[in-house]
């Protein structure tokens, strides 16, 4: 192996072009591939910019050629050589540097590489565990480099956009106290204060509100947040958020700001003009038409509430659902009457995972409405149902009834399944949407109490304030989510800045004065000293990036992600710690925990 010595790289591999013909360049990088063509050795040299062909010709530079015989894939080399045009029949139009090659005069072998566990190429089908264990090799693949570099560009653009709009990026602590975002906290034991713990931030929520009290007026931060949740495919225990807060805002100011930054990302990174302003949909309408608060509006399949049609139905499932205080919803899959019984059985089976007890399928055929349930429905019910669903001959009608939440969730999933099966989801379409007018509270059946839909600092709509003590379920919040193609990419709200309203909201949530003081006393104190009206939002950068790069996994846009089990396979975390460390932290691991 040799040293770089005083060698200085003159450019990245792909910066060498036709205009450099005749010049001497010095390049450094990895051996991407190696071909020996009758004594002349061709190497594709790779760096972060891409590939260039370097040539070791024994008659041009004998000693460099001799050394080249030793090279293997992924060895690190420095070459100094002359740029030459490729012979016409050797030009590779697929490669940026395909018109030239570098004839090596001198080479230095800077490092060797063991045989890699997988090939460093985009096409390689590699098991994900292996990719995560050898992340440094996985990240060497051009496709991954592209994604991570794209992330840098997006984050830089975000920073520029907020800076231009008068926002300051201000850091907030990681070792802090619980922020109520609805997830479990990651706790850090304090060595110096036995029995006490910090909480890693689920978001900088309370700090950003404090920054408004402090008078900074416009804050943003690209910040890591941690939530100890059971992981789903699109979740990571730590994730990056674009966190924003501003003083004296109208919700429209937040919409404009966020639409502005997203439009710039789409234009400057993807070259796509996205229409603004983004459409707005109330939570009530979203639930009614789509059964969810983050609908994919790229395709036109809508749910319809049929509850009013079936109050006296002879079909016992419909009757029962309504008698139990539930709802009945239906949807029309146009032109799908020919789907087989097995197709609809498969859908019914898939919906079980979402709590659906059954799904009623009917087909509108030439001979009329067909299906095992039809005989229980009166002519009037059938007509009203068909009209409501705008059903035509050849359509498939799917109906279910259950509690509000179960029906909506199952029908929302059904809508997505049908769209996939009908193959009507356009690929390169970006439907941004604001969902607004969320309920302030959700009723938790388990805990038998109201819980915040967003978090307890969300301002109720002014006209709903007097419902706080009497009808909390009817209160709408000044809260908004931003949705893209059925993915919630962010959410926020106008905050409560008045201590009296905050107190009433805590009461409605069953949070006692004492508990509020222990948990958020500092915020309540701060509110006593002239807190300005304020509001903000946070966008999930990982999810956003996944959509920007068109990736299938959120893990592809995070340099060092964790598995579904929350493990970092490269560094082997989480891992055990020594008895001494535990002792210092005043902790003990019980035997039961280890079994
Ligand atoms: N703190 C919220 C979140 O992390 C966002 C916000 O309300 O600004 O989801």
Give the structure's gist in a few sentences.
The chain is of the alpha+beta class and 595 residues long.
Structural class: alpha+beta
Report how far the terminal alpha carbons are from each other: 49 Å
Number of strands: 22
User: What is the CATH H-level superfamily of the largest domain?
Assistant: Bira Bifunctional Protein, Domain 2
User: What is the number of domains?
Assistant: 3
Small molecules bound in the structure, each named once: aspartic acid
Regions with little confidence, pLDDT below 50 for 5+ residues = none
Write down the overall geometry. globular
Under CATH, the topology of the largest domain can be stated as BirA Bifunctional Protein, domain 2
> What spatial order of strands do you see in the largest sheet?
6-9-10-22-21-20-17-11
Give the CATH architecture of the largest domain. Answer: 2-Layer Sandwich
Strand content: 15-25%
